[in-house]
Amino acid sequence: MPAIVHTLEELQGIREAWRKAGESVALVPTMGSLHEGHKALVTRATEEADRCVVSIFVNPLQFSSDEGFDDYPRSLHSDEAFLADTLVDVIFAPTVEVVYPDGLDAVVTHNAGPIGETFEGASRPGHFDGVLTVVARLFECVTPDVAVFGCKDAQQLFLVQQMVRDEQMPVRIVEVDTVRDSGGLALSSRNALLDEESARQALAIPKALEAAGEADNPHHARSRAREVLEGAPGLDVDYVDVVDPSTFTRVDEGHTPQEVRLIVAVTVGGVRLIDNRLIHFGQ
Ligand code: PAF
Predict the structure, then answer these.
(1) Is this prediction's pTM over 0.85?
(2) CA–CA dist 125, 276 (Å, integer)
(3) Whose CA is nearest to atom 9 of ligand 1?
(4) Ligand 1 binding pocket mutation candidate from 135, 178, 191 (most atoms within 8 A of CB)
């Protein structure tokens, strides 16, 4: 049964004991509302280090004023129950005051740069500055040797890796493949907000990824996915594009890299969903 820790003092006491015992630590940062996708991150974390901390913190800095920070589902008790049969040692569930002791004004410490303003960042200005700020702060609090992130949030993962590299943070980032339901829909806390019809309509997303995977070059991949998404009822497409996985920049006409990441964002039944797929061409 994981220990529930709310304060920095308690966390640092436990962390110090682990350090003295020579034990390595993995962190899985989350905003709660845990599902099987998170469990895959936790399982991987427990394989990568001696100790595992799951943080549960709904970060106000990554929500814009119209994105419903107050309405974001919070379910600490069911999250605790969900992790009860795992090898997680500590659930770190701090308050806003613990994470941001100087208050929320002018607290953003990290700028996600130009890539932070594209795709998800274009639709959600400031989102990635907020994500990087909280991730850096969680690293400061937990001092993990390893931190585990899901590939579903591919742009987030890219930007976290970039921050760790640029700032030479002493943490190894481990990525875990997206977990999907039986229809292929990527697991996300937001899926719980889909009604029956929207959940059915959302299955066009994995179909689009599949169609793109059958294409013979990046541009066909993009157009095939777009065709599926735009032809599907009930979906409002924000973006469907292909990026170079090493730079997260758009693959323009005339370039045909061997590997691309197809990325999509749609709204269905009022719920914004993102997904992506790595596609290899040629040998
Ligand atoms: O992916 C998420 O759940 C959040 O963006 C993260 C990494 C926990 C930061 O708040």
Answers:
(1) yes
(2) 20
(3) 131
(4) 135
